[in-house]
Amino acid sequence: MQLNKLELTNYRNYASLSMEFPNRLNIFLGENAQGKTNLLESIYVLALTRSHRTNSEQELIGWQDDFAKIVGRISRGSSEVELELQLTKKGRKSKVNHIEQKKLSSYIGQLNVILFAPEDLSLVKGSPQVRRRFIDMELGQINPIYLYDLAQYQQTLKQRNLYLKQLSEKKANDEIYLDVLSEQLVDFGSKVLAQRLKFIKQLEYWSNELHQKITNKKEQLRLAYQASFPIDSEDPTIIAEVFLAELKKNRSRELFKGNTFIGPHRDDLHFFVNDLDVQVYGSQGQQRTTALSVKLAEIDLMKQETGEYPLLLLDDVMSELDDSRQIHLLETIENKVQTFLTTTTLNHVKGKLTVHPDIFQVSNGQIERKEN
């Protein structure tokens, strides 16, 4: 998979931009606050329809403008696809080859990207919400059905919590309707859980291989999905039976608090190095190596599941890694994936590359190709 051309209109500090990327490695050089991260963000938004930096689409639109537009021409195998995303104050509109896509699941997955930014090093030591979002964004690109099941689960959860609150405040008294909502929640939630468990098992395989390489086989990496209720099967039917039983067991507590206490929205992901919990006992170096292994593992996992390598977006991450991790990162991506890398200096890559990159100078929303 390759992004051949990118066009931006009224996107953050880019009033108008049109760029072609014939090369596999593209380096964007410039001082901070010039637009390097905005460029990578636009590629991420083109792929996933949302930003990793903000939940407000208004922030993505130039401050004097009413809309923003991102257009990308990508190669998938032997075919070329044009993607278009329009952002307005009223929402977003996505198109594939000029045809509007009504469902998110029919758009996401056309362009697969992996973003690695300094904040991703907090994947290990950050909050459970960070790790759940990581699973949802990455798994959603591989499996559009997962996105549908997750959206239905979240919608049902919202309805159920609202009704639980009404019951707890004595504004409603029909628990039969609560039973209906519980069954719907279990139906979608069990599918979400089954897909997450399969994904984590695959991710563990690729992550452990990379982790052993980085640590010269001194460390083994294990990933453990921590559900909010006991699960010993990946079968959605069995998960559904346990899930429903646990909801019934928690009924009185839920009615008292007006909230749903178990389900995929309360789950977490744990990382173990040589059987020790890295979040609790790991050094900062081990935590960073774990995060690097997990992020890079997605490259091979996506190739396995989709048949295409994703794009890799590296946003000023080189400065956060020591020399050995920088070298391993560059060795992993060279000649494999199209990469977009931002940096304030070329010192992190000089002498460590065997491929010839395209280098672009970024200054105040203007990008100029440099002579290498």
UniProtKB/TrEMBL annotation:
Domain RecF/RecN/SMC N-terminal: 3-351
Protein residues bound to ATP: G30, E31, N32, A33, Q34, G35, K36, T37
Annotated keywords: ATP-binding, Cytoplasm, DNA damage, DNA repair, DNA replication, DNA-binding, Nucleotide-binding, SOS response
Main location group: cytoplasm
Subcellular location field: Cytoplasm
InterPro entries attached to this UniProt entry: DNA-binding_RecF, DNA-binding_RecF_CS, RecF/RecN/SMC_N
CDD domains, A to Z: ABC_RecF
Domain of life from the UniProt record: Bacteria
Name of one Pfam family that matches: SMC_N
Protein family: Belongs to the RecF family.
Functional summary from the UniProt entry: The RecF protein is involved in DNA metabolism; it is required for DNA replication and normal SOS inducibility. RecF binds preferentially to single-stranded, linear DNA. It also seems to bind ATP.
PANTHER family recorded: DNA REPLICATION AND REPAIR PROTEIN RECF
Stored HAMAP family: RecF (MF_00365)
Protein name in UniProt: DNA replication and repair protein RecF
Organism expressing this protein natively: Enterococcus alishanensis
Lineage of origin: Bacteria, Bacillati, Bacillota, Bacilli, Lactobacillales
